Amino acid sequence: MEEEGRISYHEYKRRLKKLTEEIKKEMKKSSNKNKKSETLLNLEEKLNKLNELYNKEDDKKNVEENYNNDDNNKDDPFHTNTLYQMNVISKKALRNRKKMEHREYEEEQIEKSRNKEGEKEYEELSLNLKKLNKTIYSIAPDGNCLYESIIHQLKYRIHTYQYTITDFLKLINKEQFSLDNINLKDYINTNFFNSNIFNNINPNDLSSDLLRFITSIYLLQNKELFINFIYDSNDCEDNDTYFKYCEDIIKGVYGSEIEIKALSNILKKKITVYDVNMNISYEEDCEEELFLCFHHKLYALGKHYNSVIDLPS
């Protein structure tokens, strides 16, 4: 009998669901939990073959590696726990594949979204920067472009520092940092958190999540400086609205001029932003300067920040 070719994702899911239901029914029928019926063994074998058929060589190797690493399964190739472990691994492989396909699709859409108007703006900005002996350094358009541009600038221009990520972790009294473990309400008290170390921290220890965190805290603790920029005349100036704005920063909302101003204050760096219409500088009195550029129309998916570097002499 000729070997069946690779099946589609939907066909795999259909067969997988059917086999899983049959196995559950058969296991309920069995009075002896330590001895499997011939029907159950056949169903397990079918599921193993289904996983192999869909995943073929690469995913099959992942299944076998995980299987071989489980000492409890060495003597029993049809152990039911192994069966479901293999099923889970297969699902993980599917998720990874779908993530990769989604990423490729996003990159393709980003490339397609470049329009003539955006390209014209990019070329004009490039020419303006060239006159200043500068050029654009592209940052990925992933929603963190403002923060990643600033991190790139810090790595590019700042070569001495006093503090590291260890000092930051001591400050927040945690062994490691993750936005998933942050409760913003814990930082409302201005005496609880001091951001001064960030004007002299190792740039290689920074991440977009970390910059989002300190920006959010700074806005939260300096409401009087930013409240007029966040509310308009139609808004009710209540704490919940302002707090939500700060909370949205750590949830991944795109950065704006408000966040640039806050980061300029935190980092104690002058930040100059170029675009085709004007140049804006924040914190004029600071000695060290970072350079960004802003694109209004480069991507159809939204506005974008890039880093600006010096042209080779």
TrEMBL record:
Keywords tagged on the record: Coiled coil
Keyword set includes Ligase: no
Keyword DNA damage: no
Start-end of Basic and acidic residues biased regions: 55-64
GO biological process: protein deubiquitination
Ranges where the OTU domain occurs: 134-311
Cross-referenced Pfam families: OTU
Source organism: Plasmodium reichenowi
Name of the protein in its database record: OTU domain-containing protein
CDD domains: OTU_OTUD6-like
GO MF term set: cysteine-type deubiquitinase activity
Spans traversing the lipid bilayer: none
InterPro entries from the UniProt entry: OTU_dom, Papain-like_cys_pep_sf, Peptidase_C85-like
Annotated spans, Disordered: 55-80
Coiled coil: 91-135
Leader peptide range in chain numbering: none
